[in-house]
């Protein structure tokens, strides 16, 4: 907080300095007037001395000396008054300069607070708002200036008075907590910080509350942690695939040879069943290894201009029989043959769409509607396209939402947990994002892809900027 004098104080200072300057000028005029009278009196005394007898001139000369000393004292007073006037002028000039500097500092402080990315609110000891920057109105969507109102009236979504009271009860008077607010774009996460506001004497006069939108920061940190896990999986995948795949291949071959040798009419059914189980499990382990290798490997994309509606139509035809068995209706919306082609790796995007549609169908065991829609979007300031896959199931449990894209995480009894993790990686390889919105009425996965492959960062090595995010 910058301290500035009030308008009444400034007016009082100006009046006092003006009165002092007027008084000095008046005293100077009066002194000069008196000096002129001294000059006239000296001339009159000299004239009288010439007319006096010789024995009376001694006393008259004494009077002339006293007049001279009074005249000299008047000169000293004049000099003093002139110096005083100059000092008052200098004081006035210094005062004006300090006022200008103070106004500049106040304007600079206001500009700095207005330019800050975080919202800043100050309160007094009673909890009333004493100041705030423009970011407060933008972040909390305020329609009026909250200055002078209680802190509770700033927003209904965050209990700021309780947060302030909790901070004041801590040892150092400071506290940091995260709160969530709902905006038209979704839910935002605000990191809120409260600390004491102190004056020059270090006495507490209120509180400073800062609010910062950290939604994107949290998403980026989550993606960075995920990317770190991805990078570590590459070397593990190569070794794991080599050490397990080769023995599995040998085991599968010998099981096949053993099966051929035991293929006689009198072979017990129990042996056939056991051999079938062994073959099934070997095949399953092989599939898991292949999926793990595909997820952890870093491959080059085979980019080509492709019409998304062609891919969607193909995948819908493939899954429609499965959907009919589960009484699920498939609806396509927003796709047209006149849409712009997208530069993608067709095989990998087909894999993503197939996985998303299959998950949506499996989430509606009692029937429902699977909707695949398309709309235009923006990604890092460039044109993009967003494909949404929506189901009418029961949504993703809250405890599982933060692990949806984690490798080997699944809620299905027969799932490997690699589908969404691999889909997220493929989309990020294209420089896009994969996120989801879920509730009790269903889940929508949104795949956003840049139209021009030049917007895809580092597509050659499969590592893209962490742009995917999930919201509830």
From TrEMBL:
It is an enzyme of class 2 (transferase). The chain crosses the membrane at residues 12-36, 71-92. SMART domains: HATPase_c, HisKA, PAS. Keywords: ATP-binding, Kinase, Membrane, Nucleotide-binding, Phosphoprotein, Transferase, Transmembrane, Transmembrane helix, Two-component regulatory system. InterPro entries: HATPase_C_sf, HATPase_dom, His_kinase_dom, HisK_dim/P_dom, HisK_dim/P_sf, PAS, PAS-like_dom_sf, Sig_transdc_His_kin-like_C. PROSITE patterns: HIS_KIN. Gene3D superfamilies: 1.10.287.130, Histidine kinase-like ATPase, C-terminal domain (3.30.565.10), PAS domain (3.30.450.20). It catalyses: ATP + protein L-histidine = ADP + protein N-phospho-L-histidine. It comes from the Bacteria. Residues 452-472 are annotated as: Disordered. The keyword Transit peptide does not apply. GO terms for molecular function: ATP binding; phosphorelay sensor kinase activity. Its EC number is 2.7.13.3. Pfam families: HATPase_c, HisKA. This is histidine kinase. It comes from Aureliella helgolandensis. The gene is zraS_2.
């Amino acid at each position: 907080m910058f301290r500035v004098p009030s308008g009444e104080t400034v007016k009082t200072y100006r009046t006092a300095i003006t009165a002092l300057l007027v008084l000095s000028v008046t005293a100077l005029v009066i002194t000069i007037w008196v000096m002129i009278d001294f000059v006239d009196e000296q001339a009159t005394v000299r004239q009288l001395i010439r007319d006096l007898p010789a024995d009376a001139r001694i006393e008259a000369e004494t009077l002339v000396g006293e007049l001279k000393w009074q005249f000299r004292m008047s000169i000293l007073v004049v000099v003093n008054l002139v110096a005083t006037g100059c000092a008052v002028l200098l004081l006035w000039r210094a005062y004006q300069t300090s006022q200008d500097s103070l106004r500049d500092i106040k304007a600079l402080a206001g500009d700095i607070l207005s330019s800050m990315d975080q919202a800043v609110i100050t309160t007094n000891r009673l909890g009333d708002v004493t100041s705030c920057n423009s970011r407060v109105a933008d972040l909390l969507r305020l329609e009026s200036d909250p200055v002078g109102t209680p802190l509770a009236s700033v927003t209904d979504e965050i209990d700021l008075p309780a947060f302030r009271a909790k901070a004041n009860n801590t040892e150092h008077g400071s506290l940091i907590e995260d709160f969530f607010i709902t905006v038209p774009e979704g839910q935002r996460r605000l990191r809120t910080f409260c600390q004491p506001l102190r004056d020059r004497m270090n006495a507490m006069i209120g509180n400073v509350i800062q609010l910062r939108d950290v939604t994107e920061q949290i998403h980026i940190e989550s993606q960075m942690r995920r990317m770190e896990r991805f990078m570590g999986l590459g070397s593990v995948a190569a070794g794991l695939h080599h050490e397990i795949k080769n023995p599995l291949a040998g085991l599968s071959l010998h099981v096949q040879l053993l099966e051929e040798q035991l293929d006689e009419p009198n072979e017990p059914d129990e042996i056939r069943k056991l051999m079938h189980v062994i073959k099934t499990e070997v095949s399953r382990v092989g599939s898991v290894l292949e999926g793990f290798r595909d997820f952890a490997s870093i491959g080059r994309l085979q980019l080509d201009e492709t019409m998304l509606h062609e891919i969607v139509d193909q995948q819908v035809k493939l899954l429609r029989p499965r959907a009919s068995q589960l009484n699920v209706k498939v609806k396509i919306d927003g796709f047209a043959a006149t849409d712009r082609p997208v530069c993608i790796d067709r095989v990998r995007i087909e894999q993503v769409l197939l996985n998303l549609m299959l998950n949506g169908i499996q989430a509606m065991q009692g029937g429902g509607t699977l909707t695949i829609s398309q709309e235009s979007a923006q990604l890092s300031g460039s044109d993009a396209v967003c494909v949404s896959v929506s189901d009418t199931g029961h949504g993703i449990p809250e405890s599982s939402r933060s692990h949806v894209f984690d490798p080997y995480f699944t809620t299905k009894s027969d799932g490997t947990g690699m589908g969404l993790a691999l889909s997220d990686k493929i989309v990020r390889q294209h420089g896009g994002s994969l996120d989801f919105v879920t509730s009790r009425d269903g889940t929508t996965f949104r795949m956003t892809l840049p139209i021009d492959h030049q917007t895809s960062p580092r597509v050659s090595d499969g590592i893209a900027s962490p742009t995917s995010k999930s919201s509830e």
